[in-house]
Amino acid sequence: MALGERVGHVFRGAAIGVAEAVPGVSGGTIALVTGVYERVIASAGHLVNTVRYAVSDVPRRRGWTRAGQQLRQVHWDVVVPLLIGMLPGLLIAAKLLEPLLEDYPEQTRGLFLGLVLASVLVPVSMVGTPWRGAEVAALVVAGVAAFVLTGLPQASITPHPLVVLVAAAVAVCALVLPGVSGSFLLLTLGLYEPTINAVNDRDLGYLAVFATGMVIGLALFVKLLQWLLEQHRRMTLAVMAGVILGSLRALWPWQSEDRDMYAPGGNVLPVVALFLLGVAVVAVMIVAERRRLRRAARDLTEESYETPRVR
């Protein structure tokens, strides 16, 4: 992989990290838009298999053969740069976006509304045409479910370690599922602020429990999602599109702390301008990714037709 593409994956990782810190925005959606989603899911599946085979084979003295085979199938050239970008993206967003959401809530949500609304074009286009009735129904049902979920009032839960563990396991499912925001789920459970504070204060005890929950959730969920994408690709993408559309409720600029939606009020012009900016940013990302894929396919075709040199 060229150096430029690796650098591009670092920036994609940073964008995913930023998205995960924003309630209502899904890191999985950004991964889908930037073209790395399926490789990330496949790599996560191989990592889960690596751990499973290591735990089952090594104690029985069967060696590391199966675990090693799975480990070699991970797309390390994609995963490592993404992780390098995600951590600073998450830390910077945790530090900077919280005051923006507090001081400029309508404008900030307007920007993210444009980003996420434009992102739905990706799974819709991946389903292809024509859409079958069952796929349309799945989109509608998933959209309604996401709309209801994002309208739930914020809860208040004491951050007991067991609660944090379970919440992290659920939130990491949102990390790999486009349209579902892990931060929003934490906000609904009343754990968003404690988690952000733990990141900013470097509370290693809290973060260790949270990371353990993420590993557990990832191990339980990612294999199911990988199987769905392999066996029921169109239906799964239709559900993803519905979830993204339904989750837009969380990003409606004019709403109360209890998530009651209001008609457009103040700051309409800046909100609309930022909304259009968000749409434009994602449109540019989609066009750039499609051009990159076409260029890669063209280069691969040219290489296949090259005649080996005779020495």
From TrEMBL:
<feature type="transmembrane region" description="Helical">
    <location>
        <begin position="109"/>
        <end position="128"/>
    </location>
</feature>
<dbReference type="Pfam" id="PF04018">
    <property type="entry name" value="VCA0040-like"/>
</dbReference>
<keyword id="KW-0472">Membrane</keyword>
<dbReference type="InterPro" id="IPR007163">
    <property type="entry name" value="VCA0040-like"/>
</dbReference>
<keyword id="KW-1133">Transmembrane helix</keyword>
<protein>
    <submittedName>
        <fullName>Putative membrane protein</fullName>
    </submittedName>
</protein>
<feature type="transmembrane region" description="Helical">
    <location>
        <begin position="267"/>
        <end position="288"/>
    </location>
</feature>
<feature type="transmembrane region" description="Helical">
    <location>
        <begin position="204"/>
        <end position="225"/>
    </location>
</feature>
<keyword id="KW-0812">Transmembrane</keyword>
<feature type="transmembrane region" description="Helical">
    <location>
        <begin position="164"/>
        <end position="192"/>
    </location>
</feature>
<feature type="transmembrane region" description="Helical">
    <location>
        <begin position="237"/>
        <end position="255"/>
    </location>
</feature>
<feature type="transmembrane region" description="Helical">
    <location>
        <begin position="134"/>
        <end position="152"/>
    </location>
</feature>
<feature type="transmembrane region" description="Helical">
    <location>
        <begin position="78"/>
        <end position="97"/>
    </location>
</feature>
